[in-house]
Amino acid sequence: MIARMTAAIGLLALAAALQASPAAGPLTVGTISVAPGSSASGWLEVPAGQGAADPSVRLPVTVINGASPGSTLALIAGTHGEEYTSVIALPRVAARLDPARMRGSVIMVHMANPPAFYGRRIYYGPDGKNLNRVYPGRADGTISDRIAHTITNHVIERATHLADMHCGDGNESLRPYSYWIISGNRKVDDATREMALAFGLDHIVVDRDRPRDPAASSFTSNTAILRGKPAITTESGGMGLTDEASVQAQVDGALSLVAHLGIMTELPSVRVERPVWIVRSEVVRAPVEGIWRPVVEKMQMVAAGTLMGRIADPFGKVLAEVRAPFAGEILYVVATPPVGQNEPLAYVGQISETPPAE
After folding, report:
1. Nearest to 280 by CA among 333, 225, 208, 342
2. Is the dihedral of CA 285, 287, 290, 296 positive or negative?
3. Which of 7, 169, 298, 323 is the most exposed place for a label (fewest CB within 10 A)?
4. Is 356 exposed, middle or buried (0-12, 13-18, 19+ CB in 10 A)?
5. First vs last Cα of the chain: how many Å apart?
């Protein structure tokens, strides 16, 4: 009896191990199929919509499939049109990965939103939608919906972990930080926190307010999290620039994640040992359309009620003064004049060196 019980326990353990690490085999993303120990780059096709004004789009993708099974990390760049640092970073990351020495895989979406990138569009695609607000997308929607649907079904569904790599768009002066999204799934939340630390940006926004409905997940990383896959959003760079420090932070963070997940352990780690937690945060929005003139800068500490800037009309008449909602640090500030009603002006975060409770 004891022998039979021992054998049964052994079989259960073996089955669990096989489920956690499936046998090595081809990894297919769209029409790109990559054998173990090799890599390939190609295009993930987003079908056309209705009419000539809504054409198909191709997303540039690299798939690096390790020789041995393990985690699959998705790295997504270029969600917004003038967020360039991650687009520049991913080819450098790919050059450092050797599939012959990898346990697991990496899927890279080099540019998630080509219509916004090539159209030099801030925030919105040609359909007027923010790609990072329409997930999980719709196959029969406009171009942003269809891109989100394609990434959800061909990238997020293939991955076990995800990093959505952003920076301040072409109008945002931004300090580096990442998001730890708390979903209520303790196992996923713990793994997500560890990913945020592993990426190496020392300011981490604690975000408890993302949607909880997988059918209306809105955000790229939240879509993964609500499907049980740990995921982070990172921010490094801004103002449409590609300064070396901001690009390299994306490279170093991505490689550190690959090492953290055990996919290629010899890569260097930039794990944060003393993080600064942003325990409360708020995007301050424009009460009116006008010409924005900020008087604060990124990384500046402000008291509650501090004047952050003014909005004027084209004749110079001040329409509104905008003040800090609470004491904290300016995580980003819009640094270009045009602003529409309800569009972001600044992001304020209340900092703590004490780890927050989940």
Report:
1. 208
2. negative
3. 7
4. middle
5. 44
- 283: its two tokens: 């995007």
Please report the sign of the dihedral spanned by the C-alpha atoms of residue 291, residue 306, residue 324, residue 173: positive
Instruction: List the one residue out of 50, 90, 107 whose CA is nearest residue 251.
Output: 90
Kindly report the CA angle at 179 between 175 and 184, in degrees rounded to 5? Answer: 160
307: its two tokens: 């004047």
**Distance in angstroms (rounded) separating the CA atoms of residues 154 and 148:** 10
Kindly list the structural domains of the chain, giving each domain's residue range(s) and its CATH number in brackets, ordered by start: 22-260 (3.40.630.10), 282-352 (2.40.50.100)
Return the structure tokens found at 86: 């991650």
Q: Are 205 and 48 in contact (CB under 8 A)?
A: no
What's the confidence (pLDDT) of residue 2? 35
Question: Which of 283, 281, 175 minimizes the C-alpha distance to 236?
Answer: 175
**What pLDDT does 357 receive?**
76
Q: What is residue 174's DSSP assignment?
A: E
The sign of the CA dihedral 178, 181, 185, 186 is: positive
Point out which residues pair with 58 in neighbouring strands. 45
**Closest CA relative to residue 312, chosen from 342, 288, 344, 284:** 288
Q: Which of 24, 21, 35 is nearest to 64 (CA)?
A: 35
Q: What is the DSSP string of 253-286?
A: HHHHHHHHTTSSTTSPP---SSPEEEEEEEEEE-
pLDDT tens figures, 178-207: 999 999 999 999 999 999 999 999 999 999
Taking only Cα atoms into account, the Rg of the chain, rounded to an integer number of angstroms, comes to 22
* Token representation of residue 58: 């191709």
CA distances from 349 to 83, 202, 295, 308 (A): 21, 14, 17, 14
Count of CB atoms within 10 A of residue 148's CB?
Answer: 30
* DSSP string covering 4-73: HHHHHHHHHHHHHHHHHSPPP--EEETTEEE-TTEEEEEEEEE---SSTTS--EEEEEEEEE-SEEEEEE
Which two tokens mark 306? 């501090």
> In angstroms, rounded to a whole number, what is the distance separating the alpha carbons of residues 115 and 335?
24
**72, 74, 75, 79: CA torsion to nearest 10:** 180
